Amino acid sequence: MHAIQDHYPAEFAHCYGCGSANPHGLHLKSFIEGERTHARFTPAAMYSGGYPGNVYGGLLASLLDCHGTATAAAFAYRAQGRALGDGGAPIRFVTGSLKVDYKRPTPLGIELLIEGTLRSLEGRKAVIDLTLSADGEVCVTGEMLAVQFVAKA
Ligand SMILES: CCCCCCCCCCCC(=O)SCCNC(=O)CCNC(=O)[C@H](O)C(C)(C)COP(=O)(O)OP(=O)(O)OC[C@H]1O[C@@H](n2cnc3c(N)ncnc32)[C@H](O)[C@@H]1OP(=O)(O)O
């Protein structure tokens, strides 16, 4: 199964968080299933936060960042009745704003589940609700305004 990011054009595949062409990146892969999107990521020990055994908050924000824009793109394709990677003009979103709430420490060394749902899609703006869970417990929530990218002439 192809991830949403697998359909990004090659020239935009350099994102640190999810670009397949960035050898130093996180290579996050997001999938759409029904009314939600999901991605999984297991942070290595190098992503330690300020106290032992927990994940660095900046990494967690990065995971929400990339998963949120992928979620926005996937739902925008759906709203237009299009399939991801259909060969037409790509629909891509960038982050306009991202609010992150850290609800509890996120443990290192286990697989994290990042999920997204579409709250609204109006014009170029998509509002995405995000959660990041470890072992079934929500550790982080996020709210993103993603803005559809339009190439300037
Ligand atoms: C091909 C790429 C592939 C991209 C491939 C995807 C790679 C994965 C991306 C990973 C996620 C990232 O890290 S993305 C990187 C981090 N983000 C960025 O660098 C984005 C930097 N900002 C920008 O480029 C710009 O500000 C934009 C594109 C967000 C918006 O600029 P614009 O295109 O001139 O549009 P603008 O008229 O200003 O805004 C459109 C509408 O959104 C609203 N809006 C804009 N920003 C905000 C905001 N922060 N908070 C509230 N509302 C906002 C405006 O009020 C307006 O509403 P209304 O008047 O219409 O109601």
UniProtKB/TrEMBL annotation:
Its cofactor is (R)-lipoate. One of its GO terms (biological process) is fatty acid metabolic process. It comes from Pseudorhodoferax soli. The keyword Cell membrane applies. Belongs to the THEM4/THEM5 thioesterase family. The keyword Nucleotidyltransferase does not apply. Its main location: membrane. It comes from the Bacteria. Its EC number is 3.1.2.2. It is found in: Cell projection, Ruffle membrane; Cytoplasm; Membrane. Keywords: Apoptosis, Cell membrane, Cell projection, Cytoplasm, Fatty acid metabolism, Hydrolase, Lipid metabolism, Membrane, Transit peptide. This is Acyl-coenzyme A thioesterase THEM4.
